[in-house]
Protein 1
Amino acid sequence: MPGPVAPSEEAIALLRDQARQLDVEDLVDLCYARASESLRTSVYLEALRGRPGEQAQVAACLLCFDLARRGDERREAEVQFLLPTLEHLFASSTEGLPPRSVQGLIDKSVVVADLWQALADHASRRDPRMHDAMPELEVEAMVELDLFDADEIAELEVGLDDFDVDLIVDDAALAAFDGGLNRLIPPPPAALFSSDNGRDIDRLERLRDHCASYAAPVPAAAGLHAMTQLFLATHTRAVGLFGRRNKRRDRALVEGLTAFLSLPSPPAEAAAWFAASDVPGAEPQAWTKLAELLLDVAAQVGAEGERQHGGRPAAAGPSPRAPKVTRSVDAWAADVAENYAADARSVRIAQRLAHGDERRRR
């Protein structure tokens, strides 16, 4: 049996024209007068975006939220961005009575009333530290341009060695790295590694990018880059507004573990920021959470090794008759990180160092 036929461009254009002629309350009411369709909801959302006033903003957020909970990840990102603008409305919804601007939208429809309540419930559980920047949207496609083909490059006789130039000597790189780091350190009593609000997260993401820029010529930057990513991974929520994996957190987890496991030596200078001192460099329990993450990764690697060897611990070294396999440390680290992030255990890391006390894990 053939599926439903998609509406024509003419039909969609007519729907847009009709939506522009409706006021806000009638538009929302018509959208949910019968079984709502994603296309109709999207068109009506588009019609609401350019309208001024609090009621139009609330209506747009309701429709965007409805699309997001149906699985539209792009709308989910937009909802995260819109929610902070409605904080005063959620705060004024006391004793089950929503504000007047909302009441006009939900009076005619139980569906819309339930939608408002679901939006308010989700807003109460959101992570307020992540409101300062628009959540990331995945780039669906990339366009590659071939500027030269192989024959043209050969004709030009361009070799990579011709461009092997040391742009920054180590001393200059270290000085530039330290200068940028000092500008990112907040004034006391605030700690560099803190996650109380959106400004803290923004500062840590800038620190991460700064360290990544100097990771090659400055070993301390490489260590601090790994530790910053791991801190972000252990101090942001693993699950988003609709119960889906937080992709930003997952990326910080994979990149942080890969960078950490690829380090040629322990990141002693970076770890010093997490040590107890008169001037703390990190918020309380930050080191404990990092340690629990690394212990959990080690436990997974050990368990995987035992499974591969029939429940027995892996041998100390390769068998003399085993073929020699050349594999880079970076590739091994990336595999470990990606396998761990894909495992359900990475959503809620075991609190091995909690000493019986349940901690709030963000």
Protein 2
Amino acid sequence: MIKWGRGSLESFKKKWVSIALLSVVVPVGLLVSFRLTGILQEPLTPEIIELEAANWNMTRPTLNNTGAVPLDENVVNSYEDSVASMFFKVGVGAYYENDSAFPFWGYDGLIIRLNATARVTKGFVYSLVFKFALQEGNAIVETWEDPDVIELYNVRSANLRDDWWIEEPYAEFYGENQPKDCRAKFQAAWVFLDENSMDQQMSTTLEVTYFDGTVYRRAVLPILLKVSTP
């Protein structure tokens, strides 16, 4: 058994206090150094660039019972500056009435395709984030994680959250190896929960966060979709 005298015990305590302080100071110092040298890159407080919304609207077709109406329409929003350029397109594929299969389960709705590209000449693209803002209680969004309908280039999928209890569903994609050019494409269903009795509205927004070589910036590109009752 080791016996500690008072002097030895006090010395032991002081050494462990010093070690504990170093265990905090050194990692924090390393994190600061990594951020300054570019080894660890993360957006701190990006500058926000918010664009006006691009708009698309339609009136629900009158169908006797069930069926689908092909639409194949596109709405686009884009942004460009001296370093970055980005393109956001929502393709509206078809309108479904009382469709019994997934993802409508007897309700009406639209199939939409979301397509985003981002390029920078300096720095890198950090992330592409898609957000859906719906009228409360009137509709839901269902996204596909099937690889057959997802196309990714220089990004990885982090989250596709479309649970019904989430107020704003979203999909997150993060750049791999600090890319200068990346792309994300996936598919979703906008499902209407009313009985052809309400106008529907949804804002789909692309947020592109990028590092321009000096600061982080975040471009916000909204697209507003509206569906009216006959």
Protein 3
Amino acid sequence: MSAYHEVTLKPINEIAEYKRNLIPASIPEGYALKPMLGSVANDDWIRKGIVAFRDFLFLFCDHLISDGQFYAKPPKKPSSMSDYPFLNNITNMLVEIGYLGKFIENGNSLLITKLPLCIAQVDVSGKKKPPKIPVSAQIECLRFLSLCGFVFSSIDLTAKTLDVSDTQPLKVSYPKNPSLLAGLKALSIADMELREGRRYWNDHNLLRCDYFFLLFEKWL
């Protein structure tokens, strides 16, 4: 067994400032998207949605800078200088919302019937395994997303704890700019299906608003 080497964890506001600088300051107009994204929405709406999601990420990082210490609790034994489980949990929750959500209300909301990472699983031996996003962390993720403008139906965000599996189906909206949902869905598809190589749990591709994998090759 390898010995644990103590790691000095950076403050969450410093991590947020670093991640904010990775977000594209400008996004070109009129770029061509992969044809497969036609099932999400028309290209113009997706492009608007990507810009809206980029703007959300700036707000997300700003709230992390000012309020992150109340949400992003440090682990007892961090594995790296940026090892905040909160960032992994909230990013993967966003990916599942975008990837699995179905548009309703003329595209102004997403309906989610199941978020697998928030549900306990049973392995082949019949042993129950806890959800990959712990129940104790789910309410904190939803509260922070609400702070950043998301609205979740039928959820009491003042509750001490919450099991998201008990609240499904779940309606999610972003009233400040509904086109964000199309951007989130397209970027979630990129994160799940179009990225190169294996998708790692702690690779925050979505937090970079990495729209490169959405581009149609002829546009490159």
Protein 4
Amino acid sequence: MRSWTYTELKQIVLNDLDLEDEDFISATEMLAYFNAGIDMVEAIIHNLYEDYFLEPTALALVNGTQDYNFPSTMYAHRVRKILYDNGSNKYEIRKIKRLGQIPDIQTGDNYRWLPIDTAASGKKIRLYPTSAETSSTNVIIWHIRNAKVLALDADVCDIPEFADVVVQFVKVRCYEKEGHPNTSKAMDDLRMMVTLMEATLTKMVDDENDELMEEDYSFYDDFDQS
């Protein structure tokens, strides 16, 4: 699968819309359009096949420490599994379902975890019992991550299968700002591309459940508002 840099994707838009010699849309605006397009595609992926963004991140245990940050790349604190493996002991660190279970957890037991959100520290992973070891490799968090935000020309779009949808989203935004007569046609093309993307993602679902909820296309209406 081809990896596209921001420079390459932007050039496609500039070439296709004949904007190379125009400054009506600033560089800052163009970048914002692309990241808005990535946000739209990302949201669809998370709704239909969030394992597209499944990522493992090591949790660095510190002896005597109970609370840990979630991975910085995590999307909406979606944890798939937390696994422990020190070579001789391997198990899933299970989430505590009932607070009443906490008093029964003793030092030396397998770890359990609880998501907390305090006013002082924000969202954290709290381990029970408190870590009795220091290790950067024993615990792996499998989680759903965010799509990468584009910032520099050399940055790579990490949704290569649907980069064309992002590009079409940007074209619609450019047309909308210019008041171009092709705006309506570009929006229709974007809708068709999104429909195809949804069909592709649905076939990727592990449980083979092909039933789709009716999608909300209200975000398209924003393009019609001047």
